[in-house]
């Protein structure tokens, strides 16, 4: 269980890398819209939660307030930002010093991730962000830390080209379009996992390079 800053309790699950696999990064996973069936077990979140530990990424997924076993109620993005920050605080406290933490979100969860400029975050991995539900997004979009955006070619909720134009104006951001994918990435979650792995490797390699230069 996690506790948000306003006292709301949230259910969460953590997955560590298997024995013999070093932890290269941590990842907090924010799920889709609570009022449209989104939970921490939604398809893209589950695919990342299951696959990333094998690549050395400790994952934490959680249910936003009002979803399944989490307390509170839907808060139109304001309380949900507190929920994400509680997850960041929990996972960052478990990672070894210097281990990068990636804040990841899909759909509504991507907008909430973009609302969190927490200093513990090394970078943002954003999947099919609609750019409609966030708060103070310019704090993150203008931040020097890296942002990696994955879009669905045939997204039903926000045209990928529209989002790509916005991302082009962000600082230190890149976007990639998954061909043939729709918003739920059915049959394409493996491509999302591949992109997540590429982003994690870039962050971990940057950390390792920095450590070598400081020796």
Mind sketching the topology for me?
Blueprint: E1 2-3, E2 9-10, E3 12-15, E4 25-30, H1 43-51, E5 57-62, H2 78-92, E6 101-106, H3 108-114, E7 123-127, H4 138-141, E8 147-152, H5 160-167, E9 173-178, H6 189-214
Parallel strand pairs: 4-5, 4-6, 6-7, 7-8, 8-9
Antiparallel strand pairs: 1-2, 3-5
Helix pairs in contact: 1-6
Write up this protein.
The protein is an alpha/beta fold and 215 residues long. It is built from 6 helices and 9 strands, in the order E-E-E-E-H-E-H-E-H-E-H-E-H-E-H. The model has no long low-confidence stretch (mean pLDDT 95). The longest helix is centred in the C-terminal third of the chain and has 26 residues. Helix content is 32%, strand content 20%. Helix 5 links the parallel strand 8 and strand 9. The N and C termini lie far apart (39 Å). The protein has one domain: 3-Layer(aba) Sandwich (Rossmann fold), CATH 3.40.50.1820. The chain is globular, with a radius of gyration of 16 Å. The strands form 2 sheets. The protein has a 7-stranded mixed β-sheet, with helices on both faces. Strands 1-2 form a two-stranded antiparallel sheet.
Q: What brief labels describe this structure?
A:
about 220 residues, alpha/beta, Rossmann fold, 6 helices, globular
Structural class: alpha/beta
| Number of H/I helices | 6
Q: Any idea of the CATH topology?
A: Rossmann fold
List unreliable stretches of 5+ residues.
none
What share of residues are in beta strands?
15-25%
The 3D shape can be described as globular
Oligomer: single chain
CATH homologous superfamily heading: Alpha/Beta hydrolase fold, catalytic domain
**Overall number of structural domains:** 1
The rounded distance between the terminal residues' Cα atoms is 39 Å
List the helices and strands in order: EEEEHEHEHEHEHEH
Radius of gyration: 16 Å
What is the CATH C level class, in words?
Alpha Beta
């Amino acid at each position: 269980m996690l506790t948000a800053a306003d006292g709301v309790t949230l259910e969460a699950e953590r997955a560590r890398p298997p024995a013999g696999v070093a932890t290269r990064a941590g990842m907090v996973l924010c799920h889709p819209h609570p009022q449209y069936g989104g939970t921490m077990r939604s398809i893209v979140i589950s695919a990342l939660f299951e696959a990333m530990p094998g690549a050395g990424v400790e994952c934490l997924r959680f249910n936003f307030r009002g979803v399944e076993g989490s307390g509170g109620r839907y808060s139109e993005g304001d309380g949900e930002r507190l929920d994400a920050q509680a997850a960041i605080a929990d996972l960052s406290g478990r990672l070894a010093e210097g281990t990068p933490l990636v804040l990841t979100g899909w759909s509504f969860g991507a907008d909430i991730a973009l609302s969190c400029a927490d200093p513990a975050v090394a970078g943002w991995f954003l999947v099919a962000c609609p750019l409609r539900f966030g708060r103070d997004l310019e704090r993150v979009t203008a931040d020097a830390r890296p942002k990696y955006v994955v879009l669905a070619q045939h997204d039903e909720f926000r045209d990928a080209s529209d989002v790509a134009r916005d991302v082009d104006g962000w600082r230190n951001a890149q976007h990639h379009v998954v061909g043939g994918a729709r918003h739920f990435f059915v049959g394409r979650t493996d491509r999302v996992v591949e992109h997540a792995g590429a982003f994690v490797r870039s962050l971990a390699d940057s950390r390792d390079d920095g450590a070598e230069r400081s020796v």
